[in-house]
Structures are given as C-alpha cells and as structure tokens.
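Standup notes
- DV: blocked on the single-chain target, sequence here:
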Amino acid sequence: MADFSPQALDQTIEKGQVYPLYYLYGDETFLIEDALSRLTDVALGEGLKDFNLNTYYGGEVDAAQIRDAVETLPMMAQVRVVIVKDAQDLTDKEWESLTPLIENPVPSTALVCVATKVDKRKKFIKAFLAKGFVVEFKRPYDNQIPDWIRSIGRKHKLTLDSEAVSTMHQLVGSNLQDIDGEMLKLSQFMGGKTKVSSEDVLKVVSRLRIDSVFDLTEAIGRNDRARALTCLANLLDHGQNEVGVLALISRHVRILKLVAEGMREGLQGPRLASRAGVSPYFLKSYVDQARAWSDRKIEHTFQALVDTDRALKSSPVASHIWLENFVVQTCT
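- DV (later): unblocked, structure below
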C-alpha cells in the first residue's frame, strides 16, 4: 500500500472493511478522532469494545504492552483493535521492537497508530507504507469550512440555512472541534427542531466568544491597534489557538475585500451581503470598515497574513509575538 487520502479511508470504512495496520497523522484532530471512532464502530460495534479494544499513549506505554495486546486473539469477535495515540512519542527503540509486527501484521488485530507528524525516512513508517494505510489529515482551507459546518450539522441532525452557516463560521472560526462543540450545544438548544437560523446560532454560541471575536476583527478593521492587541490577548487567554485566530482575521480581511469590491459595483443590502458571504446582520459594520481599506492596504495585509502563518508554523519564537507583530504592522 502507500499514502492514502482521508476519502479513500472513508470508502473502506463505509464498506465495512478493516485492515491490520493504520497510521493516522496530521494537525486536524477532529477528523482523526472521527475516523478513529467510525473505524472502531465498524470493527467492533457497541457491544464488544470492552473486550476487544485497547488504547495506549506513546510515552506512557512500552512496546511489550503494545505487542502483547496486538498478539492477543479477539474475544467473541472477528478482530481486536489496538490504538496507540501520541505515537510520535514512542522511542526509536520501541519502534524497532514493534517493527516485526508491522512487517508481518497480525490478521486478527487492527493496530491503529495516531500521531501529529510522520518521518517517512524511518524504517517503521516504510513498513507501514508497504503494508498498511498511512493517512494524513490536514486542516481544511477556509473556503471549505461552510461545507464542513453543514456536514457537522447533519451529524447532529441539524440543517443550517446559509445565514446560519455564515454566522457560525464568523463566530467560531475554522477549528472543526470547536464547530462540533457549538453544534452539540445548538442541537440541545433546538429541542428536536432541525432547521437552524442565524438567530439560533447567536443565542447559543458563547457570549464571550462572540464579543472576543467581533472585538478583535472589528478593531483590526477599524485600525485600532491598542484595542486589537487587548482583544488578541483576551482571545488567547481564553484558549483560542494562534492558528485559529489568524484564520478568523484572514476571513475578516477577505470579507472586507469582497465588500469593497461589491460597493464599487453598486451593490448594497442583501445583494452585497450575499456577495461577501456574510449575514445581513453584520453588513453595516463591514461596510463602515471597508471604506477605510484601500486596495493597497488589503494587498499588504494579505502578504502579512501569509508571512505570519509561515512564522507560526516554523519559527521557534513564541506564537503570540508573531500575532502581535501582525497587528502592529496592519493597524497603522
């Protein structure tokens, strides 16, 4: 076998197929956990997990425990599932001990390793690539998030109209785990009703989150440096990750660009809101901000966003410093 896409993995799960080896990695933990849950359900169903599911964490388990679990026959089932989370924390020596099981998989066991990263130069990964499924789960691009919001809504038996999708995206951002958590609250709030409006989203999403997100993006839109730095610190203090904050800002700047273009074309009201992909509830604020953003400023800000994203993912300097630097550059 070789590298597989998440879609290819989905196809095997939908067919009820379970294989002896999986290595799932990447920075989108929600998608990994979702795939892991569905794979386990297909392999074991609900009734047999207590007898045939072992979950370990790299750094807290030794190779002998994993090997013993993999070699144990399933009880009253066709397969046993052994999950090793944080697999990147296993030492090279432990992987060396496990490599014979990867090169010659136990057919009655599905060994599923979950990690944040992969080094394809390693012998054990080459063995996974030869014998099993190696699947990377990447964060979706921002323009893919509306479809994910609809998909996660369907998982919770909810149908969101276009304004509700836009509002959820604006308030919660691009983190799928956060979207799923807010969708769970929304399903409980709806009390059996399935059609969700923008007003419903506004009633359910945390007031702190609403205030913090709008305060930050609006401060940047209005070039209020002091206010933006204060709001940024507040968001980070309350658990919003740096990449998520940058995604929120990126979306806001894209909306300002679309609003400015639409205004030049003479659009207004619902037509302008539709062009920008925002709820009419928020349009006036965007219009007010867009008037102060020239094409040159928008271009400069997009470049600063690209540079900041690269720095967040590669620089040893503390992430919040790069975000603060972005605010200082942008709010002039």
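- Follow-up: The chain has a mean pLDDT of 88.
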